[in-house]
Amino acid sequence: MFDYWYDLKKEKIFKPWSQIVKPFSYDKDLSYFELMVPTQDTTKYSYSLNHLMLIEKPIFFTGSSGIGKTAIIDNIIKEQKEAGIIVPININMSAQTTSLRTQQSIDEKLEKKKRTLYGAPPGKKIVIFVDDINMPAVEEYGAQPPIELLRLFIDRKGMYIRGEWIWKDVEDTSVIACAAPPSGGRANITPRLTRRFNMFCLPEASTGVLGAIFTAIVKGFLGTGFTDKVKNLEEAAV
Hints:
alpha/beta; Rossmann fold; 8 helices; 22% strand; 238 residues
């Protein structure tokens, strides 16, 4: 079923993703790492991510390093932020990340609505993007405190006010997580957390897809003022 998308608004039938792949537009002001060439894979994962995010369903992107997980998520968050729909919270985890710092990162963007009710500004949603979620150090009892905090946050839709031990509810908030498979400093994440997420395992791009991506970028770059003689080197360079 993931090879097709459902056109709910118009014809109400399943259609191939190729019909809604957007054309690539080269922007010379963006760095190389900010460029994303739309493909069928990036289109379907972006489509799913966007719809789940806006209905506050937790999403987890996994797959090997370098396949574009973070780029897809960043692109969708940027689009929705510019549209004035979301307020993003970016958390990049490492072995030194603590549960206190994780909670502070979330608290900084929350608005108080009632005595124990917090959430996004009126008319918006808060999206918490946790990159490298499996990087926090494992403590002596086998848990990762920042991850346990997020699990509680997703399970109960809130967290405790530290020091006062008063529970506060948090609304209009969704969580997006991203991680490469366990290896090196990356630990196995407890199923108590992953069971709450809609999991997507992104595949590595084929040689043909990589060729199309680099061709689009090189073509766009050479089209910013190079001579025809240099432009003709595009295919050979790729």
